[in-house]
Specification:
By secondary structure, this protein is an alpha+beta fold. The protein is built from 43 helices and 44 strands. It starts with 26 loop residues before the first helix and ends in a 6-residue tail after the last helix.
Length: 1341
Amino acid sequence: SGSMTRAEHTEPIMLTENTNLRVPSVDRTVLIRSHTKEVTFGALSGEDWRSVYVNLLPWFWLFFLVFLKTLTAIYWSIRAARQAALALKGGAAAGAAVANESYKRRLTAVPMSEEALPQEAVQSGYRIWTLGSVLQILWMIVPIFSQIQLVWLTWEQYVGLGWNAVANRFLIVYAVSHLVLFLAARYSASLRSFFMCPCALDSADYVAVEEASQDTTLCPVNFNSWGKDNVDAKDRWFEYTCVRYLPNQDRFRPSGTMTTTGTEAHSALAAGGLSEADALEQLRVQGPNRINVAVPGVFAALLQEFSEPVYVFQLMCIWCYMFWTTWNIASVWLVLIFGSGAWKSLLIIRANQQQLSEMASAGSTRQQLVLRGGKWKEITADELTLGDIVQISDGVVTADIALLCGSAIVNESMLTGEPMPLQKVALEKHMTFTFQHSSHGKKHGLFAGTEVLQSTPDETTPTQCPRAVGMVVSIGGRTTKGQLVRMVLFPALVKFKYYQQLPIVYTLMTIWALACTTACFIFQASGFANACFQGLSFLTQALNPMMAVSFTLGQSCSATRLREVAVACLNISRIPIAGKIGTMVFDKTGTITHSGMDLMGVRPMVDGGTWSDEVAASNLNEALEQKSEGLLRALASCHSVTSMQDGTLVGNQVELVTMKALGWKISPPGESRRVVSPSGADEVSILKQLEFDHHRMTSGAVVRTKTGDALVYIKGAYDKIAQIVEPASLPSDYAQVCEKYAQQCFYVLAISWKAVKGSSDPDTIANMSRGSLEQGLQFCGLILFRNEMKEDSREAIDELTSGGINCVICTGDNTTTGVSIGRQSGVVPAGASVLIGELGQDDVLKWRDHETQAILNDWQERDGEVSLALTQPAFRHLVRTDTATLDQMLPLVKVYGRMKPDDKVKVITLWQDHGPEGTVTGMVGDGGNDCGALRTAHAGIALSEAEASMVSPFSSSKGFHEKGFISLMAVVELVKEGRACLATNMATYMYFMIYNLTMTTSKVLLTCVFDFTYGEWMFISTDIGLGMIMITCMVRCRPAESLAPHAPTASLFGRMTTSVIATVLGIYWLSAGVVAVLLLEGPGKTFFEFSTTQLIGAPSNEWAKKADNYPSSCFFLLNVTVYLACAFMLSYGHMHRQHICRNLRVCGGYAMGIWLVLALVWAKPGDFSCVFRVNCDSAASTSMDVPLLTRPLAGISLSTGALGGCFHGPQLVSCKSTDGRCWIVPPRNVNLSLSWSGENQTRAWAPFGTWEEKEQYCTEHPYVSGSSSDPGNTWCFHVGAEKSQCGPVPSRDLGPLVNGCVGPNNCFSQDFKTALTTVLVGSSVLLHSVYKFVLLDAGPE
């Protein structure tokens, strides 16, 4: 009768195996008592001890964290007091930026390139502190120990104490563990320094370097081998960005380079080089001549990768599902996320570091001869130090060296990509200027990493040395090769809307997930722990970890396709950025045009200041012998071409073609320089060679003719020569003739001469200044070269221009020549007039019409279409004085002329900072002096095979072996692939946002209204199946054959993006509303029953069993339909990708997915339908036999146990028994009315009012199988695991069922199947139609 109370029930409750009761947590204390007698602790079983420990976990963490926080507060106060005392001691010596903090000093970080300005940073000293180290270890114990506890608690949940005993404790440990892990990952460097004691830099164990654009880097202070106890101040050093920093006064300063003059260097050579003691001391302080590229071990590489905050979040997601009875989904995520992270870390990042390390260490063990203490000594290259005098031997140069004696023929293709060897000559003794390797090294220096082809001594070389000799001026990371390595290791940071908006999206989705979680806490009544896990699942689905994986996957596929078209990618994250390029800056020589020059002829000037006829290169020597012997001798002697031992000529390319055209012979190496005519009748001796000066833009020579006359020849750009020659010597139409040649794309050089007055002995000439030699010159003639444009340059630029990309030329050549090439290549629009901005002597900007040479005061005076060109002085003037005007004219500037490497960098940054909406800017160069610009640009592509091209995210040698030149079409291929990659990344982003929003909103509805959710394989098929398979197919979309007029959107909040997401959500909920109407008022009215899993009594942790209903199955079918349609329609080729029919993977996946949906809609109860809990009933569910799912195969099962067994259909509560009682009886306070109308029938009045009373009642009156008179059989039946309990026992009427279904079910009727199919097909058609004909046709943003 149920009248017996718990107090009266003195006998133990006999529980059978068939009684599946939810035992309250308080019952654990009852189990360790027998009747009323206490059990001693010695009698506790292992399970009881584990239960005691689980219950103590919250108290343990409470006390431990309070202890840690108290200890941390004490530590912080002591540390702050020491820091304050240190500040008082330090004063304001550090400067205004770090005043009153004596442990901080300014640090001038070495820039990554010659063009970049030194980066101001702050260096802070820290010392290891025992108290801080102990505290740090205690905090490190928290995540380590807590992760171990999570493993143990998860095991207890599955096979031990169960959900009720450990769920709340798991959440506490889970929150503590991941909060500490996230803070440690996000603020790793700051936290490491926090656990150290601030101290003066001269006693620091670590130095923290803080740059404005970088995260804080903590660098360990190292000591030389003499040991820490006997350390001297100069023995302390740390390394930052591959550069060693040494103590200097009160701070650390960069080392590895030295300054010298020609006089000082020659004095060091005469003194016999460094002494042994000085060399060892220098080596001890400066360190070995190595470029240290740290290659972490496998474990360290993985630890570095997985220390990112994003992996902490992903670990949170995995633990949530691992504990929440979904180990299979968690296992798949674990493999995918951490597998892809390991692949990226070991096979991409670490592999690149190994390759770079091998390149950096190449030649470090090479033997070198150095002069130590007046004697030549053989050492390895890594023992070279600053100031060493070294013999220049053939092979790889291992340090930056200033040439002192002799000459060297060098192959610098590693730096410039130019295969043409160059001659380097020695510094002269009288040179008192400070040797700058970046500028003077072009003629007098050897760069590390280049190759010496021939080393030749001269009369100044020591007699015992058979080679040229030089002085080491830079070692290790400060060398040219070290700079190259550093630019690769530490690339420039670029801003891109796509990446900048992602954190905002994650923040908004986190807020949305918290809102969903709050709704669960308010409206769902399945307990605190279950609500927390529901909230975590919302967070997991709102911030789907697979979204980031899809971005990387799409970029990796694009990188693979780029390799197919001979474009190498060093940084795959730059590929989608390349798709958004708005302005492409081109170098001219070697990029748009061929790298070499062809000599076309000369234009001599005859007596009287008049022009002679043009002389063709094919008849140069013979014609000039008759017209202008002076010009002939000038051409033959005014150059730096030299001869190798085998007779091969080496030198500047334009001078080489000139000498080959003349046919004059050059003296062999080692002899005094002279040139002899082909017939031998004429001979010219070179007394002094004037190397090319980048500031003067001239080169020259002082020569002696066969008749004994001493002459000076000066050669240079025609506009520069016009400034230094006597004006009367110039033809009246000099400027017009030169401009005409430049307009015809000739590279024009002018040559001048004069006779040396006074003494012409070698010593007098050697002491003549360059300024005096370049005075009183007479114009002699013009030399005409042509740099032919590559055959496909016009085609490439036309396609880029038609793709909406603004093309710009930035060249070191003459501005007029740049404009002419711009017209030929299509950079300058056809029909546009070109105004060249030039800076006058009065610092006033004037504009010259390229065609008419008319002068204008303002570029806006010209009507019609206008393009602008700027000379270097004009550009620098505008940057310095009038940036507002420069910003205004920026879109019209098509050519920048006479630009130095740092000017090219400025052009790039100008477009990035001042272009329309921060224009994404690309740079195309040959990888030589363009390295700084290539590194600065959003997407730089080096058309070169040289190692220097590594500084660029992209490089190409496309067409080199087939055509003999590197094709500019590689740039077009990059932009095509970039746009396809960006479109695909945006497509996968929209897919996951649609998935995240529809999945979370539908789950909130199901959870809060019904306490329903999606089944195990419902979730696996949508999240893992579609999220992996369809995304993998989507990223296979190839780029379109041609560029569209505009780039795809890169805005995550743009009109197109938000419109697509909002439209899909609208259609989704419209379709869901129609399905609800069909269930409640349409064909579903004949079978639909309302219920909740709370009424059924399903355990809260067994969430996968909460899908045995109609709403979950209908939402699932609608979800799959919408996700499939989205994946397919977002893969439409449209403008940037090939037609979707070309992507057979997407088409096949879509067809299979639609077949799956329709098969489930029309399926009869069976194994297939019951796996997805659609159209399933108890008979089919209990008889399921699916290998790996319901039946283990070789001991392996892929299901968490949610398949098979009873089907918890809605009929369990909404049954239609004649006596008004249902199979499962809810308490009276539920006040659940009958879902059907019967004559004089009412729901039976249960003997318990609340769920707690029912639990107590059914504990006292358990269900006994087969006993129809027992109160437990009447009121307390609970769905068990045995098949015998899956039917109405005792026999009760479940009411009308769908034909063919047995027992509790969620079967659809035939009419409902037809209606549901119509809705699903209609939603797909509507999605495709609106996207194709409305959204895509709306045009660009």
